[in-house]
Amino acid sequence: MKRVAILGATGSIGRSALAVLDQHPDAFRVVALSANRNGEALRQLAANHRPLLSVLVETDGREALLEAATHADVDIVLNALVGAAGLEPTLAALRAGKRVALANKESLVCGGELVLRAAAEGGGELVPVDSEHSAILQCIRGTDAAEVQRLILTASGGPFREYRPEQLAAVRPADALRHPTWEMGAKITIDSATLANKALEVIEAHHLFGVAYEQIEAVIHPQSIIHSLVEFVDGSVLAQLGFPNMELPIVYALGYPERLPYACRRFDPIAAGPLTFAPVRTDCFPAFELGVDAGRAGGTAPAVFNAANEIAVAAFLDGRLPFPGIAAVLGDVLHGWDGGAADTLDRVLEADAWARREAITLVQGYVLC
C-alpha cells in the first residue's frame, strides 16, 4: 500500500486526487492533507479520509506544510499547491526521497535546476500530473532520449482564442473564468485564457524531459482531446488522447510505472468528432511569448515571470487591471529585471519578491491611468 500526502487538498486537483484514491482503497492510504485557508473544507475531507496529519497553512504555517511533505509515513506527495508557494515543499519532499506527483508547475518554472538537483541528491522521483506532461511521459516511455526530435504541447486556446485584440480590452473576469473544456481553479483558468499557462508548461517540459526550447512547440487544439504529441527522429509521431479529465493523469502519476484500472468515460473517436489545430496567436496573447522568452533566458527570469503573473492575475480578478494589462505588466517587469542565477532557493525567492513588488507598483500605476 502506498501512503499519500495531498498538498492543496481542497482545490480542484486535490479533490480529483481524492476521488482517484477512493477507487483504490486497497492500494493507497491518505496520510496527510493540507489546505491554504479553507478550514471547513479541510475538516470535512479529514473526517472522510482520516489522515494522520491535517495542515491549514494559514494558521499552522510553513513548517507544518513541510512536515506534511516530508512525513516519514508518506511515500507519494501530490503537490497541487497554487503558485510559487509550491516550490519549497517540492524540494523538501524530493530531498526526503519521496515521489512527487507534480501538479504545481511553478516548482519547475521557478526552480527547475534546484528541483532536479534535489531529486538527484535525495533519491526522490518526479512524475508530472499536468495532462500535457503526463501525455508526453506516456508517449516516450521506454524510448531513449536521443530518439526524441520534438515535443508538441496542445492548448485549448481558452475562451478568447478567436477574439480580435480590440475585443480583449472589454473582457471581464467572469468571461475569462468560463473555460470551454476544463474545470479548474481561478488562477489557472485565467492563465489558460492569456496562454501564460502554456508558456509555464513549455518551461516545465524543458526541465522534465531535458529537451531544448527549440524542440518544444505549442499549438491550439480547441477540443482538448489530444493532450500532447511527441515526434521522433525517424518522423514518427505519437499522441495521447482522451476526453478532458484530470483524474486520468493523476491516476497515472500515482500508479506509475504501472497502469491502474480506473472507472471513467471511455474514449470514443466518433463522439470526439473532428480534431482541429491552429497556431498560437502571439499578437493577441503576448504572455505566451514573454514566458517562453523568460525560459530561454534562464536563471531567475522564469521566477520573475511567474511572480509578476500571479500579481497581475490577482489584480485582474479583483477588477484592478484590464485583461490586456496582464501581459503589459509581465513585459514591463521582465524588461526591468537585470538577471541572476537560480542556483539557491534564497536567490529564487529574492527574485520572486522583487518581481511581486514591481508588479504591484505597475498595477497601481495602471489604475491611476
What does this molecule look like?
The structure is a single chain. The chain has a six-stranded parallel beta sheet, sandwiched between helices. The chain folds into three domains: 2-129, NAD(P)-binding Rossmann-like Domain (Rossmann fold), CATH 3.40.50; 131-245 and 265-284, no CATH class; 298-369, Orthogonal Bundle (Rna Polymerase Sigma Factor, Chain: A). It is of the alpha/beta class. It has helices at 12-22, 39-49, 57-60, 62-70, 87-95, 106-122, 131-140, 165-168, 173-176, 186-194, 196-209, 247-255, 269-272, 286-297, 301-317, 323-336, 345-368; strands at 2-7, 28-35, 53-56, 76-79, 99-102, 125-128, 148-155, 216-220, 226-232, 237-241, 278-279.
How many H/I helical runs? 17
Strand content: 15-25%
Estimated structural class: alpha/beta
The strands making up the biggest β-sheet line up spatially as 3-2-1-4-5-6
Q: What proportion of the residues is helical, as a percent range?
A: 40-55%
Mean pLDDT across all residues, rounded?
95
Write down the secondary-structure element order: EHEHEHHEHEHEHEHHHHEEEHHEHHHH
User: What would you report as the Rg, rounded to the nearest angstrom?
Assistant: 20 Å
- Sum up the overall morphology in one term: globular
How many strands in all? 11
Total number of distinct structural domains: 3
**Spans of at least 5 consecutive residues with low confidence:** none
**Multimerization status:** single chain
Distance between the termini: 58 Å
For the largest beta-sheet, the strand count, sense and barrel status come to: 6 strands, parallel
